[in-house]
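Human: Respectfully, please carefully check these tokens:
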Amino acid sequence: MTLVELLIAMAVMAMIVGALGGLAVGIQQGYEYAEGHGAATQHARVAIERIAKTVNEATANEQFPGFLAIAEQQGTWRFPDTLVVWHPSGAPADPAGLPRFNELVIYCPDASVPNRLVEITVPADARTVPPVDNAAQWTAEVQAIKKSNAAQSVVLTDLLRTCAVGESLPLKWRGAVRFESRLLPTATEWSQYKSGTRQWKDLSWVQYIYGSQTGLRQAWLRMELQVLPGAQWVATDPAAQRAVPFFGSAAVYYELHK
């Protein structure tokens, strides 16, 4: 074999090795991508199904619609990232009134580690919760529970997307979770009916299901989680910082009485 032939053979071998190396890198990245998105899907599915199951089993009455989506205002931004569900472990203390704090299940990002979505309960707190329309007190109470040593917390996922928000330093990191709720008939319509300014038949009954003495009310929840692919994929490729959104919903149905 001449020197020219040897050089040509070496060049061909180098091209083959380079191509195989690039193919191997692509296969490895594809595997990590699929593994990461599989982990994200599993985390999101478990979290959404657990929240939906709790909401579907919630206790509700005229004073409390089963759950509340609580928003925190930070500057000009609104963050509805906390969900409070009336879900007693047994019979509620006051089925026709307001729940107790130890009957609540709270879903929100961890106050200290915002990439974690947690489920919080406070078994030792038997106080009655504030009225639904007292948003300021609800916000204060929930913030206190999130920081309380008496609260019991379960991590549903640690793959939440986080982002820094704020109009001045220091910026605050928040987990990308969103809860939105809708009542039919609405709270405004029900207040108008109770005050005599709206007729019973004119309320927004769900699927027009109502009678002369009772009507069906729906409390509907929409939720969104933005979940990052698995921790290994995020660590090895900055492109993995692109979060995957997941959506879910749940509803509570209960009677209103004339």
Q: What stands out?
A: The chain has a mean pLDDT of 86. The chain has one domain: 3-257.
